């Protein structure tokens, strides 16, 4: 028996399947996670000191006290634009400053007026916008109302915890276990209580020690979403879109940016990015909550319960972070689009991406040399497959020294880039935050002499292992470092770069191969004497912030930036695209792309994608085709593969596979005008291009748990084929009184119904919603920029009445910021009273295009017109050729040939 | 899915009517053709794989996808593809045509020379083949002879050994006794050693020297941290104390040590921080990812090496594992011989008579061994020769002379070697150890051009990947030259090789393959 035991211990050491979970902490291995998670709901010791109340036009300020420790806290509750409420709790007199993640916000949020409507010893009621909140004094609790409906409660379960900074007591010989309250003495001497000090002063994980010189510092609170069974968001996890209960079944969802080797699907483990933002949705209401904290964070979700006499469903959540403050934003909705807009106000939106960047990207670790790049580029032409960007991974550098080139493999980088860009294409090189410690490397020697590296706990330059071996990590917390880094993208600094070369910021969690959990030690020190633990989840965004600035500066603010980051945080969307990291070529990983990208999209990270084909391992032809078909309908569309995988450029497969991949990419290119319009609208109002069905059909409860279909904008429904050997897919069509049309064969489906759609290898199940108009470009070019003057085709899908449809189209130069000076065309198309017209939405005369209208397809028209007539200012009235297919109720109108921006109308005469 | 076959073609004849008219005509024809194709939209899904024909007067005509028309990029030297775009294309067909014709002439000369060389190679190849056939005949005769000799020698050996066996019988008993005594001594010595080890361990672990091992004491020794969480838990410690809180000296020596020994002797104390674990680093792949390797091994396992092992040096630095495999699968005849010899150690002195019998037996064994070796050599040689004769050396045996030669090319890091119909390898420039990239497999060119590609396979297996393999692209050239070597995909190499053996086109047929517009 004993020998058996011993044997089993020995064998578990050597078994490794998928992710090595042992490399990453479970809640049990984290002191602050245990201390918070082990709290039992009950009466909270925190109470509001009503006599300290200070009311100003936009906020109320007061103090909270902990009845058990006597420690005092500041409380600020302020009203923000668009009906939002912010609650900020900090230590009143901390012995050490506590970190605030303000740089993640899109500037300091503007406060608006707030009214104290009633107040007594038990609490107060405030009103802001159309909403109100009730603050209970003892125990402290906040109830937030959206309109008249109670939607969120804070600290109702009494799980608030705010570990104040203290100095470590020297262990007393007799009374060793007793860790009493620290050196803060308050007016009321508190009853001495033993605080939970489990793992508070020092912790070990594997061979790593965390010195925790400042002791316990965690903050936590519970939030109940009243009236909600479904909560979403808090990316990044490889899990279902509708978040699962964690309490009692798994670890809490963890947010701690980590480089996870071969991550697994369907679990709450932390991944590369963190956005502590949650959306709760029901058929009548949508609200949001942002927990602004950049330290390691865990979120427990209790199973939904029915509460009170009304039997309202309720989802209880519990959030806690290792350090920092409690800074919470309540987004009152009331609808999903309102929550998206409110989140956009707080954390900003994705700036309109350059046109090429929403097209297809070809990446691999690695394209080996100039010759390889030339061949791949030529093969895309040879096989007539459009692509826009070719990427170079780490091997292009001289010894993993970023901003340099391997002189043997890439002796003439500029010439190489120019050859690629001659066909309207672009290139991307990888630039990571770890800097090789090589005295001959200019970035390293400058960073060392200027003191720009993160320091270890002893104050020396932090040294970690990454691709180049021993590396320093730039301290992007320091604004001076960010400016310096930005300057390195100048064409005079980055030799061999051009304005057509863009950037990929990888490994920016940061990844440290020999660090705890493959990242930086928490007691490493940053500028401003912050500990790494305080701001870990922001390291990536601070880096991309700086790279973005570099991109703008190198063209004096004329050209748009494109950069891709693996790590992300609240607000990362302001600097570019994000991908889901190192996935694997299997069907589970293909399926998980949908919930992962939806979670990111609704949390503000809207320009997002997953490696097409899967990064690790080799996809077979079927999986690769299905992945291209899915990826073509996701916001960021890039194929990528590991160094040790087989080459998988489309022409390396059989002719049919190649043709299927080409067809999928071509579908993406034909819809680029639509995607571009959505990205422009995203910048304006925060609406993600890729969205859950319930964002368009909020009351359709069938859609609340869906992981396999989604909307692109408000017009297209996508249900990618994500099963091997599929012969059909079950598609649900949402919305009362809606009709949907298969974009391939114009078959009609009714809302609120499911249908079994037969699929072949070439089928991508995509459906256009009746009542919408989409502008497409059906001519294929080698790259998207070459299609600039090409004509458009309008797909007019009539609504259920067969009378009406509308849609928008946005056009600009595709790569500069001139659109901010009004140089764009934004127009609406509408079909009513048998007439299709266009009209300017945001008028601007400053942009001209040669693009014209080549074809109009009207779907769902029940009778054949006698005549179709176009009328425009330029050439008056003209009859057009058309064909009508009664079987599919399809009218195809040929060559109206009007300029897309001129005012025109097309009339059907019966 | 089938691809539509109907490629709309423009006009194959060329005409020159002055630039304006010419452009007008082109536009007219495009409209007409569009009408015919039934599509308004060149380059759309309505007509995939449609082509636009550039006449390129003065140079070669060209067909480009319709998606390249009017996209702002000058693809036809006569600028006809950009008839309606804002790009300023310049007609440079005449200049390009002139250069192309010069190049074509030069190439033609080379090809002609290559063709003649190929004819010559064919002759040599056929001759070589005949030589091989003759050699095989000769070997087969020798084979019969050596087989006979071997059988005779075997019979003689048996007889001599029978005699020897009888003579040695009486010495054997004595010998066995000695052996037995030695074994007993060994056991005693081993027990003593174990006891010392156990005592040492006990004294080291028994921190307070009270003669009792406790859980606390064991918890101080990180060796017992089996789950490697940085602490030795109580359970982990108790495991070594028979699940009790403590253990006395006697019990430890008698049974405790047996359980603890494998762990105690294994040096697993927390190692200093070393760079481990990383996503996608090769390091990690090696350490963590054996399962991938298994998944990926679609290729056949490394083949054992037979006859050429003497001249082929297996790699020593990069893939020691593979070297072992290599050796394992290679039978060593000598080992067998050694086993057959009587023990030489402590050879007792025999009387003269016995010694004679033994000597005679030894001689018989040696004779047989020689005969057997010769027999095996001939068999192997026959196998090899048959193998060579089975290889497809081309329709006229023109590739035969490449067999037995090796060609090299050196890049920045490696020297690559191609020994046609034999093997491919790679050797770092600075240290000389070679990696087998694959042995001759087969011709893998397309049906109509079978001899344009060779495949070498079953090279040294990669970490996380398949066995290394090489595709060799062959092209006509006047010399046998390995012109390039690269690794486009991990462990899948690509060589470019020129040889006159590939120059299949005689001068008389060349004009038809080159199509140059000379008229203006």
UniProtKB/TrEMBL annotation, chain A:
- Give start and end of each Glycoside hydrolase family 31 TIM barrel domain: 350-678
Q: What is its main location?
A: endoplasmic reticulum
The family this protein is said to belong to: Belongs to the glycosyl hydrolase 31 family.
- Domain Glycosyl hydrolase family 31 C-terminal, which positions? 686-774
Name of the protein in question? Glucosidase II subunit alpha
Name the gene behind this protein.
LOC106458825
Instruction: Outline the extent of the Glycoside hydrolase family 31 N-terminal domain.
Output: 74-300
Statement: the UniProt record of this protein carries the keyword Glycoprotein:
yes
From TrEMBL, chain B:
- Give start and end of each EF-hand domain: 193-228
Transmembrane spans: none
- The UniProt record lists the MRH domain at 404-505
InterPro entries, from UniProt?
A: EF-hand-dom_pair (IPR011992), EF_Hand_1_Ca_BS (IPR018247), EF_hand_dom (IPR002048), Gtb1-like (IPR039794), LDL_receptor-like_sf (IPR036055), LDrepeatLR_classA_rpt (IPR002172), Man6P_isomerase_rcpt-bd_dom_sf (IPR009011), MRH_dom (IPR044865)
Give me the gene this protein comes from.
LOC106457458
Biased composition, Basic and acidic residues: where in the chain? 280-301, 338-352
* Biased composition regions of type Acidic residues, renumbered to the chain: 317-328
Entry keyword set: Calcium, Coiled coil, Disulfide bond, Endoplasmic reticulum, Signal
Tell me which stretches of the chain form a coiled coil.
129-191, 354-388
Q: This chain belongs to which protein, by name?
A: Glucosidase 2 subunit beta
Q: Positions of the region Disordered? A: 274-352
- Which domain of life, per UniProt? Eukaryota
